[in-house]
Amino acid sequence: MEKNLLATLSNYKTEIEPIITSDLSDIAIVSNGIAKSRMCIHSFRTTLRSSKFRSRKAEVHFFKYTKPYVYGRLKFFVKLHKYLLLKPQGSIAKQRAHIDEAVLKLEAYNFKNIDFVGYYRRDEKNLDKYYFVRGKDEIGLASDSSHFYTDPEFSTSHDNLAAQIIAYDLLIEHYNEELDRLRKKELNLSIEPDSPAILNNLSWTASKTDLVEIIYALQASGAIRNGQAEINKMALVCEKLFDLELGNFYRTYFEIKERKNDRTRFLTKLKTDLEQKMKNDDERY
Fold first, then answer.
1. DSSP letters along 30-67, please?
2. Residue 214, domain member (yes or no)
3. Cβ pair 11, 66 in contact under 8 A
4. What does the pLDDT profile of the chain (285 residues) look like in tens digits?
5. Is there a single domain that holds both residue 50 and residue 74?
6. What is the pLDDT of residue 137?
7. Taking a C-beta distance cutoff of 8 angstroms, is the pair 230, 28 a contact?
8. How far is Cα 138 from Cα 67, in angstroms, rounded to an integer?
9. Among 67, 86, 109, 116, which lies 20 to 30 A Cα-Cα from 268?
């Protein structure tokens, strides 16, 4: 069984590395990370249901290192997905305050479990038989009661906390990169070229929601870079082109999806208007 688990982990690492190192401001990429991580966790669960560990040492290693490696990244992608949906698009100060609030929540969670965090970071071993073996729930050692609601065949008392530590490190690294980007923007360290005169006075007079609908339609159609163009880059181009701010276009897209009737109403309007123009032109000439 251990060979199957290691093969699954190896395949996951191969698939997840280019995602982790790519543009994580693109919610589509983050969603792909969630999907890949969930598939790997499901594969782990299926393997454990049909087989047994050959030794206690192998069980500890899986729940201390292998599962948290994947589950920690799943937590990271899920939290990042939520962050992108709620991320403010206003002033730099507002964006920094949002990141600071997210960091404070992470630090509060770690502080609440400070003893185990220290144990895990120092890679101690003496309590592994309680922390990372199934069915060894010592309530006196538990700092997080959430494991009592998890699948006892696929969880120990502390593998979830180990995953949380990994997710914390990834999130802190990402937030620091975001803060560094905002600092550079505030100090005008990245000088952007002036827009060419031909782009002047091209104002967008429909709603911003309509423009977001167009952007997502273009990506879905494969019309730009065979559908591989990042939504955030397409949105940035439109913002530059029409001299506007789209705000949180990810959230706008989800609002579009929640429409009860005619979810692509602007695209429908475009089709109707173009057909009417063609009809008018035919009648005129």
1. HHHHHHHHHHHHHHHHHHHHH---SSHHHHHHIIIIIH
2. yes
3. no
4. 788 999 999 999 999 988 988 888 888 899 999 999 999 999 999 999 888 899 999 999 999 999 999 999 999 999 999 998 888 877 788 888 888 888 888 888 888 888 898 999 899 999 999 899 988 766 555 555 565 556 778 999 899 999 999 999 999 989 988 888 888 777 765 445 556 666 667 889 999 999 999 999 998 898 988 887 888 888 888 888 888 888 888 888 888 988 888 899 999 999 999 999 898 888 876
5. yes
6. 64
7. yes
8. 21
9. 86
Given 186, 220, 241, the domain boundary residue is 186
The two tokens of residue 218 are 């273009």
Beta-carbon contacts of 19 under 8 Å, excluding residues fewer than 6 positions away, are 29, 32, 33, 36
Looking at the structure, tell me whether residues 153 and 247 fall in a common domain.
no
Whole-angstrom CA distances from 133 to 44, 119, 147, 150, 158 are: 16, 16, 13, 14, 9
113 domain-assigned: yes
Of 186, 216, 249, the position where a domain reaches its end is 186
Question: How many CB atoms within 10 Å of residue 79?
Answer: 19
- The C-alpha atoms of residue 89 and residue 110 are separated, in whole angstroms, by 28
Residue 220's contacts (CB-CB under 8 Å, 6 or more residues apart) are 227
Whether 192 maps to a domain, the answer reads no
Q: How many domains does the chain have?
A: 2
pLDDT at res. 191: 44
DSSP state of 69: H
Rg (CA), the chain: 24
The DSSP 8-state label assigned to residue 190 in this structure reads S
What is the rounded CA–CA span in Å between residue 193 and residue 273?
36
Residues 168, 203 share a domain:
no
Q: Is 71 within 8 Å of 163 (Cβ atoms)?
A: yes
pLDDT of residue 239: 85
